Here is the input.
Amino acid sequence: MLGHYLLTSGVLSQDQLKAVEARRTVVGGHLVESLQALNLIQPEELQSFLRQPPQVPLRLEDTGLEEQFLLNLVLKALFITQLQTVPPLADLLKLSQGIVDRLLQTLKKQALVEVPGVSDPGLLLLRHILSERGRERALAALAQSQYVGPAPVSVSEYNRQVEKQSVSLEVIDAGKLRQALSMLVLPDDLITRLGEAMCAGQAILLYGPPGNGKSSVAQALGHVFADDIYIPYAIEIDGQIVKVFDPAIHEEAEAKAQREGQRSTGLVQYAHDPRWVLCRRPTVISGGELTLGMLDLEFDEISNYYEAPLQVKATGGVLVIDDFGRQRLQPSELLNRWIVPLDKRVDYLTLHTGKKFQIAFDEIVIFSTNLPPRDLMDDALLRRVHYKLRLDPPNLERYGLILDQVVRANGLSIPEDVRTLILEQLYGRQGIPVAAFHPRFIVEQVLSASKFHKSPPVLNKQAIMRAVENLLVE
Here is the structure.
């Protein structure tokens, strides 16, 4: 994918590409890492190449899509939206006005579109409406797929762009990592190991007793990235459309006004192919609700197009499998499904037509579990999870820091004798097992009690002991 693109772009020769692939066969890793190790390209030239945004297609041939596919998309847009002029159609389809104009001219020649006049004499924008025959063709196209929106990108173009912006290529800044984890009180060694794991871009297993921050750490790691990436609205495979961009998951990085330009006059100049959205690297979290079906394409039998599975929406970022081992499917089923993606960084999905295709699998998968890893994975699966980090309960010193942090965050204060009661009597003499979630639990109990009694919250001995009663069971 990326190697072929470097070859056709003249950045690499055939012999250089063969040398890169030979090294990757031995040591693995991303193509870029082998390029750097073999000194085949200057770092500045490589970074300039990798940071090139998807180029705006100026010709229909540059879209990577069949002309008939795009003609049908325009017909459906004219039928569904009632848009009639080139600028709003181009904005809807995320194509250049030149391409949309060419498509409309073709439809006009085929007697599928008529031009009854101009919409605004001052702007000389021609109106386009469907002929009776055009309406019939639009209905036939809608019967095949009701998708109307931004034109998709080809799956080959998608795979190439994903490789250019791979999560494994981002170097994690130590300061940004500590900032992302600043709300957690963690040992320095654990923070260092987390940073090393994130730089590797490989799967991570967080395990250990419940209530010690595994889920919080996993979610926080999604905020350590500095780079933005391009996410397509949709991709096209064999004439089928798969929606990828999800506003509930993908956070746009560019200003809306900058994207839209001046719609009224059509003076829109794109910095990149508008079929792609510049976004923060995504974080997708799934817990006990995860099923094998959620890892496959979701086909809407009414609309006749697909929704991308959660691992595709997490591409370029982090996918958290929380409470691993407590899903409705067996852990081995999930891991066997991903044994190739975790190892080869590619996945294989199947259309309802039976066609199977390859798609990039480029994300850091973080498994978080309270269960013993050996109960979840055999050796073959464990070796594909490159980083295994145990999160143990805090010692009393770290527990005290967590307690102080939670108290301050809630605008409270804790008398020294009450702090001593918690640290020395409850955990020292009474031997209550320490867990990192206890301070938050205790403070929340005190706040709830004060709300019920309509009195200011006070961290005194009575309030602490009542909270502890709700913490423990016989």
